[in-house]
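Run log, item B.
One chain of 471 residues. Sequence copied directly from the ordering sheet:
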Amino acid sequence: MNTTMEHTSTADIKPSNQMRKFGIKDKVGYMFGDIGNDLFFGLIGGYLMLFYTDVYGISAAAAGMILLIARVLDAAFDVAWGAYVDSKPAGARGKFRPYLLYCALPVTLLGVLTFTYIPVTSDSLLKVIVAAVPYILWGLAYSTINIPYGSLASVMTSDPIERTGLSTFRTLGALLANVFIMVAAPSIVFSAGKTPTSTGFLLIAIICAVLANLFYFGSYKFTVERVRGAKHNQEKTSILITVKGLLSNRPLLGLMLASFGMLASMLVSQAITPYLFKDYFKNPGLIAMSGLIGLGAMFVAMPVITPLVKKYGKKETASIGLIITFIVSALMFILPITNAYVYMTLNCISNFGLAFMNILIWAMVADCIDYQEKITGRREEGTVYSVYSLVRKIGQAVAGGIGGFALVYVGYNSGAQSQTVDVAQGIKAIITLVPAVGALIALLAMILIYNLTKSKLVNLNEDLIQLRIED
């Protein structure tokens, strides 16, 4: 790690009353960070499996295994990195912002290598290894920037509505990045027609790398860390107290399970979409339109989130959206949809419901960090966020595994020019059933486990104010 990333003492930090007040600049800066993250995250989620199966010629089962192994390794590394970040005191530049500056280049370079085709013809196992190593390394490097970035929101403000604003702008950043991927990637990857090219994958990766570095720098420049918790990094963290607090952190446990279900819904759909339009609807040219319509639903949901949160609360608003997603996804699985435009319309409604949870989840993570502080008396942003990220990575691993193994189950042949009718029907079943089950899991977790209602959040903030005064 670059030595300039070492933190100075907390005495170098300006008092909170001398800092710029929270405002639109913070929201835009936080949005920039997620654009940087999701340029590669969206590209990998939507196209890596296709790169493996149709460029490297790796079987869908092997591709799914690579995704599974990479996410498990990422998850384990997340916790270690979160603990490392928490062990470092905040400096003049803050505790989390410097990572946006110094980790950006390694992450993006490895992202480019992930989509760089290296010809290996003699050994199928060697081919899998050569394809997998850059992606696994990218995942580890991604954690070094994503854990601090995710933790950053909890120290930018403690106000629930301002946190909802940060969460909304973070989602907006993800949407903008994914819109770019949806529009640019198909035309570049499928530049030769209906067959993806290795040159196309490499070109879109390079473009994403350049843009991501610019947005990471913008995020670093526009954000400010303001919140200092009780006993904030003034004494060594007790592992026993931390673990006990995590196990007692009921909202965190509920949110992790809900995220697991949500990610299964999102990532399986994302990974299988190219196959759905290529093999079921026989029209890969609609991939971009489908993605844009789905993301459009997220844009429509954004303006209604804050009013709903003010009236009902975050938990309640997220639950309403999950009900919509479950009902619509279940109908899509049951109905014999043969028209691509009918599918895109229903999928848009499903995405609208899922947007409620997807937009609010980052604000709820910050609330879980506050809850951990109440339990332990320590501000452990990196640790709590990394544990949450661990479960997200497991969800990503399972989603990647489900996608790959489900394609094998329905008989997908990566070497065939076209797939059979039964395989195409199986692809349609996968892309509708998994989101329905995932939404149901998330809904039950929010209703039965996650307990930070609107009124309890008010009480939590009052308790923390008193705790910090006493400290």
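Observations after the first pass:
- Residues 340-376 form the longest helix (37 residues).
- The CA atoms of residues 168 and 359 lie 5 Å apart.
Flagged for discussion on Thursday.
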